[in-house]
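Hey, quick one: can you model this chain's 3D structure?
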Amino acid sequence: MGLDVNTLFLVTIYVEAILGLLLLFAWLQNVQIRAVAWWGCAHLLRAASVVLFGMYGAVPSLVSIDLANVLLFLSFAVIWTGARVFDDRRPLPMYVLAGPVLWLAVAHLPALSDDLDLRVLLSSGIITTYTWLTAYEFWRGRSEPLVSRWPAIFMLFAHGSLFLLRTPLATMLPWSPANQMFESVWLAVLSFEALLFTISIAFILLAMAKERTEYRHKTAAMVDPLTGIANRRSFLQEGNELTKRHSAHPRPTAVLLIDLDHFKSINDRFGHAIGDRVLQIFAATAGANVRPSDLVGRLGGEEFAAVLIDADRDKALALAEGIRAAFAKAAAEVDGVPAAATVSIGVVVHEDQPLDVAELLGQADLALYCAKERGRNRVEIATLDLVLQRKSPSAGSPGPIAAKSAA
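Sure thing. Here's the predicted structure for all 407 residues.
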């Protein structure tokens, strides 16, 4: 069955217009994702371009060729701009207009005006450039775990590559623009491919926007908004994941429970703004002193916790002491006021099966209690004797502590 280019043109116009309106409607539902508006406008521009191409022979070539190509190039440039905006990069108006201006400036030069192959190559090169730039923008943002980025990158790269084949295809399957524009085999194939690409990329872009929204909502629910580290829910959830991995590959694991000393006094003396800065400084200090494989979270208020993977007693104490000393130095003065903030840290090291982060937090809390009793601004590690004594109803004294801190 042959492909009717006239029908494809009509279908493409309707599809582009409908998809453009659909994307704009989706943007109105969530105006924060401005890239969707750019992509919707791009589809409407492409619909207008196809309308003008379809009027070839009925209107001057200045409209059906030049203006149609300008709108087509703008549509791809706007798609690229939407990709930049999607990843919080600013639009570049000069480069958006570069393709259309290049076409108007070069296509009518004597060397190109009568050479169809060179004109096709020029238009294909402009479209390929914008399409590959769009793929590159999505690739630059690949650190954000959006699954739909990868099919978008692949499709954009493949679509741009196919446009470069327009010139050799035109040479292999020549046609006369005066008589056979809507009877060319290669034009029908490219029109059909462009239609499929339009439908696919529109839904992939919508999927990316939806995935971005869901990802940010999930992140917001799992991240403490003040410090930017895991909140209590996220910390315990990650702790459960660590428990599962620990069962398969047992390694020494340390749990730290951390409490800022006299934090209420800091708030009372210097105000809550300084208190918030102290919390942020601690989160940044802890993040800088643990390893990428470790987990740090804010359990609430001025209480934090950390899980150190593959950390024996000596390594856990060294890391805890590093956090304590670094924070005491960083928070000695905060925004010009002598906050002199410090932390007390309780440590428990686990080397047996099974790993239970919640249970270890309870044991680390006993060591933290002893750190508070012994003067604060110190690290204490829990021992079996300490745990047993603290759990005993008759326990009265802190019991032996296996390690001390440099207070």
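One thing worth noting: Residues 174-183, 394-407 have pLDDT under 50 and may be disordered.
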